[in-house]
Amino acid sequence: xxxxxxxQQTAASIVALAGGVGxxxxxxxxxxxxxxxLTVIGNVADDTELWGLHISPDLDTVMYTLAGIANExxxxxxxxDTWQSFEMLAHYGAEPWFRLGDRDLATHLLRTALLRSGAxxxxxxxxxxxxxxxxxxxxxxxxxxxxxxxxxxxxxxAFQEYFVHRRWQPRLLGLRVEGADQAGLTPAALxxxxxxxxxxxxxxxxxxxxAPLLAVEPLPARLRVLKAAGVPVVAVSPIVxxxxxxxxxxxxxxxxxxxxxxLAVARRYTDFLSHFxxxxxxxDQIDAVRALGLVVGAADTIMLDREGRRRVAAAxxxxxxx
Length: 322
Known about the structure:
Elements: H1 7-10, E1 14-18, H2 20-34, E2 38-42, E3 48-50, E4 53-55, H3 57-67, H4 84-91, H5 102-116, H6 121-131, E5 137-140, E6 147-152, E7 155-158, H7 159-165, E8 172-178, H8 187-194, E9 198-201, H9 206-214, H10 219-228, E10 233-236, E11 239-240, E12 243-244, H11 249-255, H12 262-269, E13 275-279, H13 286-290, E14 295-299, H14 306-321
Parallel strand pairs: 1-2, 1-9, 2-5, 9-10, 10-13, 13-14
Antiparallel strand pairs: 3-4, 6-7, 6-8, 11-12
């Protein structure tokens, strides 16, 4: 049965938890449907400092995608950007393994200056997103420092060292989110959750995009409260046919001793999840996911273009509110 979205459902307030390319693509579809009624709570545990600049890769990927300027080929940065600054760094003998385009660099320059002047990351992100014409409200999960540390067979690595410099080749043994015990959910994020008619966990990497969000209290507790109150909390699987469409999620599942399946994703979220959308290619897992106590739907979740993103977003909301 096709999943369709009613006008009443599009008028409701939506909160999405997102990071990375998969998350960015789904929230762009959600923004097409509900515009400013969408709030995106983004991961900041992959933030890093490089060349003295505060860089927020997940927030920026979401922001650029929502603004319609993302580089769709790379999954990061700005479409049509140039590289003169980093070419000059290389000329000076530096090792610019984390590449920043010239226009992208302006984002980090302003962010860093504003943070040093005393602005919060929430205030800075809001200013940047508004300047780019983003309709949705984009919020960091916390204003405090939060960093993912990757435990590998080659020792502990900062996330960007593992993900970008080492291209996620070292074998994963575990993960740690530093600063989670000190971080707190921002007031803006908490207010958005309090007003939510639906919460969507995007098809982001469960280990390095969603897990760091859930490490920030009281986000998990708040999701449990919403679920108990009958507010739909729906996740879209980032695993399709045993593979991640982009990034190392499937490799991470395997290296941590678990088969990469939609069912494995659902198991990670059952504590606070009410609904789960998997791809039609994984329809044989519907009964197993339903046995977890979840309402399950299946759809074509491949998001190749704007229409595909809108289609998947509509399917997720229709499942949640159906």
